[in-house]
Amino acid sequence: MDSIDELSDKLLTVLKNYKGKRLFTVAISGIDASGKGYVSKLLQDELEARGYKVVTIAIDPWQNPISIRLQKENAAENFYNNVYRWPHFFDQLIRPLQQKKSILFKTNLIRTDADKYYPFTYHYERPDILLIEGIFLLQEKYLSYYDWKIWIHCSFETGLKRAVKRNAEGLGEKDLIMYYTTHYYPAQRYHFDKDQPAEKADVIFVND
């Protein structure tokens, strides 16, 4: 699938048949620079145009500091296991929002390009749909948090070209490519072997 309209149709079909009591939650995952944020924004815009109230939460600002997530020893496995503050993300933000369908939560998030923390307030009132976007979301131990799962299909070659072009990390091209080839993409391949994320998704959205 590569149409936002069609993706929205399928999501709303699932939502209309949803019998759960918590806030309907969709995971949007894929490799680094696959376009997760881009697709999430398009999907949110389309759903809101159809009259739904949508919240999108990215997990990236919940990363650990560079000294923790980018260790040289067992680089791929370490990045996979330690890139995010998973328990804090789900316990402090996602689960309360799902259960109460509203939240006012003040926390400190990290600027991943500079390892600097900044204050941030999550404030949402009665959304209809929660979109969570980020890498590694489709691990077995986190699947129970999602009611629908989207995998963004994108090749490593395309992802790397996008990463160099956007350079969200603010690095020189050589250093940026080093991070992607030493940490990020080896960790994604580790994720593929361990979790088979595309197979766990309910739909695959092609963004290559």
SSE arrangement:
Elements: H1 4-16, E1 24-30, H2 36-49, E2 54-58, H3 66-69, H4 75-82, H5 86-100, E3 102-111, E4 116-125, E5 129-133, E6 148-153, H6 156-166, H7 173-195, H8 197-200, E7 203-206
Parallel strand pairs: 1-5, 1-6, 2-5, 6-7
Antiparallel strand pairs: 3-4
Helix pairs in contact: 1-2, 4-7, 6-7
Tags for this model:
Rossmann fold, 8 helices
Nutshell version of this structure?
The protein has helices at residues 4-16, 36-49, 66-69, 75-82, 86-100, 156-166, 173-195, 197-200, and strands at residues 24-30, 54-58, 102-111, 116-125, 129-133, 148-153, 203-206.
Question: What features would you describe in this structure?
Answer:
The protein is α/β, with parallel strands linked by helices and 208 residues long. It has one domain (4-206): 3-Layer(aba) Sandwich (Rossmann fold). It has eight helices and seven strands. A five-stranded parallel beta sheet has the order 2-5-1-6-7. Strands 3-4 form a two-stranded antiparallel sheet. Strand 3 (102-111) and strand 4 (116-125) form a beta hairpin. It is globular, with a radius of gyration of 17 Å. The N and C termini lie close together (11 Å).
